[in-house]
Amino acid sequence: MKKAIKIVSALILIPVLLVVIGITGLVLFVDPNDYKAELERMAAERNIVLNIEGDIEWSFFPRLGLRTGKLSVLPDTDALNAPVGFESMDIAIKVMPLLSGELIADHSQIHGGHASIVDKHTGNTTTVEKLTLTGRGINLKTSAFPLNIAFKLHTTVPEQHIDVSLDTSLSLDNTLQKIRLISSEGVISYQGEPTNNIVYPLNIKAAADVDLGAQTVAINELVLKLFEFTANGKFTVKAFQTNPAVNGNLELSIDGINTLLKNLGQAPIETSDSTVMQTFKLNTLVQANSKKAALNNIELKLDDTTFTGDISAELGEVPYLIIKLAGDSLNADRYLPPATDNENQGTQAASEPAASPSNEPLIPVEQVTALPGQYSITLEQLIVSNLKLTNNVFNTNISPQGMVSLNSLATDLYQGRFNASGTLDAAQAQPPLTLKAALSPIQLEPLLMDLTESEQPYASGNFKFSSNITTKGVTEADILQNLNGQLDFNSTSLTLNEIDMTGELNDALAELLRMELPGLMNSGDKTVMENVVGQSTITNGVVNNTVLSATSLCTAFNGNGQFDLNQQSLLYNMDLVFPSTDTNAACAEINTRLKDVPWPVQCRGFFSDDPASLCGVNQKRMSQTVEKIVKKEAGRKVEKKLEETLKDKIGGDDEVKNLLKGLFN
Fold first, then answer.
1. Average pLDDT in the chain
2. What number is the average pLDDT over the span 140-154?
3. Contacts with 148 (C-beta within 8 Å, 6 or more apart), sequence order
4. If we measure between CA atoms, which residue out of 419, 428, 437 comes closest to residue 538?
5. At how many degrees (to 10) do helices 619-649 and 503-513 cross?
6. How far is the C-alpha of 39 from the C-alpha of 493, rounded, in Å?
7. Looking at residue 593, what is its pLDDT?
8. Where are the alpha helices (DSSP H) in 69-177?
9. Cα torsion 418, 529, 505, 637: sign
10. At a CB cut-off of 8 Å and minimum separation 6, what does 279 contact?
11. Would you state the pLDDT for residue 121?
């Protein structure tokens, strides 16, 4: 038995000794520097300039390797203005695995690489420095091996610095066609002029399989993290050299939007609500090829608002977008800038004209024409200016030529619904605009309570309108100057709480006739109207209200006037009439001297004025009314005197009244 063990041991030791003797002889008797000239000549045959400056040294057990000093390589390219240099290169092979025919390069390293790359079109230079490539246990046959890559990159225009450090675990097949990135983690730090020299540390984690023969890449894991921003993805890429096609899943998240902006050196977005701009999340399927890119099954969340849908783009010289999104609830007021001191102090002083229409562009023509496509966005609830809007619909098409077709802009608000449609030809220097809009009856009181944040809104009741207008231009001034069309409105019940059309009239009557309007007409600081009907035409920004009629319990209103949108002013005349009717007992109480006499009221001023100060008695026309009253009063006195005389002659009240009926009315 012992003899057998000795024989087996000898059989094992003999090959080992032969390998050791062979390697020892190689190291002792072969000088690798003898082959430097041959290596440089072989590189030159491939148009590569190779220069090995230092000596090449052998290393022995436990690794068999070669170590060089400085060397430089200059490939056949115009991009380099100097050779690519290395401080040293160390290639080491484990000795013992050689006995089983396995080649493992252990602790191989390229150290101190540097290169200078020139853009021949701009002359800008990119410098690569401190390039280090370290591999351990590199085995092309059986297993993956760790690899570390580190380098610094610097550009001159603009001034930029990039530091890269990646630790990977890599696997190659024998044909070098299949590469497997089992895991890779590292940091890419960026600093430069575009970021005001703020350091951006991008953390990377990745795993992928690459098949060069099949032209496919499977990114099994990709995690990017920059401050509060995180991106996660899994993708497959096919035909990446000929006709790339990408499919996969993408997740984006921001945990603190304003914090991220601050870390990026950007100004935070100031909002009226400090609790918003906190979280952003996007989860979507990605599909892309040379003709089309799409984000499908989108779930987008901003704070507490969620949108779902799809976004795609037909790729060309100008992408054509197709956007379909549906949202749940958005409070836009929370994202508005904080109120300024001027806004907190209120509006302009009374009788001071409002600012003239601006000459700054109001329609972003360039932005509109730059984003052609089909847009369909719905939102269950939207809060803007404290108004609660539900079932919101926005549907429009923008052609590549700049023709905008607003198919529908609709919302439910305060028991009514607003609908609008129109067109805008943004390709023209003065874009023509057409707009049709209609509002079914809404309830004014809750609307104005929300809008003004007041428990006492200046109007209540219902209101509806329809309009058809045209205009052209880009600035607010041009749009108003060219505004033309028609506007009709009506209300079955309307109360103006801060405008008392009968108040000043009552004071004038008390002074003129020593009488007051009956109690039914005194409604406090408000005017109550029913069956309001209005018709208006718009000419060059001036709204001409040609028809206005309304009634109240014992009063009829008729009016007409102008609202000048260019000057932000109004001049409106209205007559209050107490019709001759005995159908209502309360109205019959109105003194006969007031019946059928038009009592003039005028509203004039600027849109910025206090509504309570806009309306009062029309002094000029009041003199005409007084003249009618005087004549009527004189006739009444004559009638009364004649009635008394005839009564003595004829006798009987009924006979006298029938005789004089209508004579002095």
1. 78
2. 76
3. 132, 133, 134, 135, 165, 166, 167, 168
4. 437
5. 50
6. 100
7. 61
8. none
9. positive
10. 253, 254, 255, 256, 257, 301, 302, 303
11. 73
The rounded distance, in Å, linking the Cα atoms of 630 and 616 is 22
pLDDT of residue 389 exceeding 70, the answer is: yes
Residue given tokens 């390219």 in the structure block? 77
Q: For residues 177 and 158, is the Cβ–Cβ distance under 8 A?
A: no
Averaged over 217-240, what is the pLDDT? 94
- CA torsion sign for 229, 235, 240, 244 is negative
Q: Highest mean pLDDT range out of 367-371, 414-418, 544-548? A: 414-418
Q: Model pTM?
A: 0.74
Region of residue 531 (phi > 0: left; psi between -120 and 50: alpha; otherwise: beta): left
Q: Are 546 and 562 in contact (CB under 8 A)?
A: no
Helices (H) and strands (E) in the chain, counts: 11, 34
197: phi then psi, degrees, rounded to nearest 5: 60, 20
Highest average pLDDT, of 214-218, 323-327, 648-652, comes from: 323-327
3-state SS class at 112: strand
Is residue 514 exposed (0-12), middle (13-18) or buried (19+ Cβ within 10 Å)? Answer: exposed
Show Cβ contacts of residue 262 under 8 Å, excluding neighbours closer than 6 positions: 268
Spatial distance between the Cα atoms of 585 and 583, rounded to a whole number of angstroms: 6
The structure tokens listed for 73 are 């390589």
* pLDDT at 590 (0 to 100): 60
User: Which amino acid is present at 128?
Assistant: V
Q: In angstroms, rounded to a whole number, what is the distance separating the alpha carbons of residues 294 and 310?
A: 7
Spatial neighbors of 84 by CB under 8 A, at least 6 apart, are 72, 73, 74, 75, 113, 114, 115
Helix, strand, coil % in the chain, rounded to nearest 5: 20, 50, 30
Q: Show Cβ contacts of residue 623 under 8 Å, excluding neighbours closer than 6 positions.
A: none
Query: Buried b / exposed e across 546-572, counting CB within 10 Å, b at 16+?
Result: eebebbbebbbbebbbbbbbebbbbeb
**Strand extents, DSSP E, 196-278:** 200-211, 216-226, 229-238, 245-255
Residue 37: partners with Cβ closer than 8 Å, 6 or more residues away: none
655 has a pLDDT exceeding 60: no
Beta-strand ranges (E) seen in 98-177 are 104-105, 108-118, 125-135, 138-139, 145-155, 160-172
Per-residue pLDDT band for 627 (boundaries 50, 70, 90) equals low
How does residue 555 score in pLDDT terms, banded at 50, 70 and 90?
confident
546-554 contact pairs (CB < 8 A, 24+): 548/574, 550/494, 552/521, 552/527, 552/528, 553/520, 553/521, 553/528, 553/584, 553/586, 553/587, 554/518, 554/520, 554/521, 554/578, 554/584, 554/586, 554/587, 554/590
In this predicted structure, the answer to whether residue 147 has a pLDDT above a threshold of 90 is no
Rounded Cα–Cα distance for residues 405 and 401 (Å) = 12
Measured CA to CA in angstroms, residue 322 lies from 54, 180, 306 at distances of 63, 37, 19
- CA atoms of 281 and 357, how far apart (whole Å): 40
Rounded distance between C-alpha atoms, residue 617 and residue 605, angstroms: 14
For 50, 59, 195, the CA distances from 88, given in Å and listed in that order, are 14, 14, 35
C-alpha to C-alpha distance for 344 and 324, rounded to whole angstroms: 39
